[in-house]
Amino acid sequence: MVLSAAVTAAGDRIRWVELAGVEPARVYLHGLGATSPAYFAASATHPLLAGRRSLLLDLLGHGHSDRPEDFPYSLEAHADAVAAALVAAGARGAELIAHSMGGAVAIVLAHRHPELVSRLVLVDANLDPIEAPAPGAPVPAGSSGLASYSEEDFLAGGWAEVRDRVGPDWWSTMRLAGRTALHRSAVHLAAGTTPTMRELLVGLRIPRTFLYPAEDGALAGAAELEAAGVSVVALPACGHNVMLDNADGFAEAARAALDAAVYALDGRRIHTLEDFWREIGEAVGGPGGYFGGNLDAFNDCLGGGFGTPDDGDFRIDWYDHELSRERLGHAETARQLELRLGRCHPTHRERVATELAAARRGEGPTVFDWLTEITEGQVPGALRLR
Q: Would the N or C end of the chain have less CB density within 10 A of its end CB?
């Protein structure tokens, strides 16, 4: 069915095709001059991806959505409009599969509205600003070509030149976009964001995958992305429209990305051991989730049966771990040992008191050491310190 939500003060509406299924919702975002039902219907109904509540959403100014003339169509404005639609749809903590410009919007959305996005699968998304074509050089068909026109020239007839340049396939959905929306979206996409989309992507604290055509060669900056926890996957037999050119390969790669058991810890939110229990519980089990409330329980949870895969094939990405290392240092260790001393069995008090005295001197293992050693002992290689 087609649903909609007002996303601006004037009541302009974003529309989406919704397929019923289990939560959490999966949201598909299209690229410039495209529409999600046309580009993603086959993917959302593919046997490897079907069965999830799916929103095939058209960005404002595109496809079935409204085309307001007074909307800025910046990446930030697009992201905020999508956020309003997701809130209205009750789709918090959604998984986003986003292509091209839609991927740039998804990155900004996850940065500005982190509570709405639990995972990103980016499909040959724009990560960097795009240089304008050199004077006298052929005008490309993509966003930089559209952005090379002034808005006045584009509306006065430049759009027809773009129509002839992009060809009938892309034009079949581009013609549905408002011309003002199309031009402004292209201008802002080519200009990018500050910080750049790439920098925002690196800073996100959720599982992220970047799919791109293998025939393009090595992805620029892939090593830096992977070091930040982004999975970079090249797919064969496809061009920019990966999901259309290689439907089965795309579905397989997207399913692998969505099913991968990756649990993200945000070190910025961890000040105490109690904070760690909250963060790991929510990372594995969602809001209010449990994954241990003491060291012995944590050790047991890592052994399986508390939300992680039974085969132990999972990963914990601890972001800003150096900040956590500092906060979970000897001062926090002494606090925890003081608590332990007050409740431990009398036969253990001498040992705990000795450990407490060492922690107060800034010596011995810390809370951070306890946690990392337990994890490595139970699931070797699962912990990635970012």
A: N
**pTM for this entry:** 0.91
Q: List per-residue pLDDT tens for the chain, 386 residues long.
A: 999 999 999 999 999 999 999 999 999 999 999 999 999 999 999 999 999 999 999 999 999 999 999 999 999 999 999 999 999 999 999 999 999 999 999 999 999 999 999 999 999 999 999 988 777 778 788 888 999 999 999 999 999 999 999 999 999 999 999 999 999 999 999 999 999 999 999 999 999 999 999 999 999 999 999 999 999 999 999 999 999 999 999 999 999 999 999 999 999 999 999 999 999 999 998 889 999 999 999 999 999 999 999 888 999 999 999 999 999 999 999 999 999 999 999 999 999 999 999 999 999 999 999 999 999 999 999 999 99
Cα–Cα distance, 67 to 286 (Å, whole number): 36
The SS3 assignment for 97 reads: strand
Prior bond to 195 cis, omega within 30? yes
What token pair was written down for 52?
């999830």
Q: Which residue type sits at 137?
A: A
Q: How many CB atoms lie within 10 A of CB 22?
A: 9
DSSP state of 11: -
Residue from 134, 173, 178, 136 nearest 159 by CA: 178
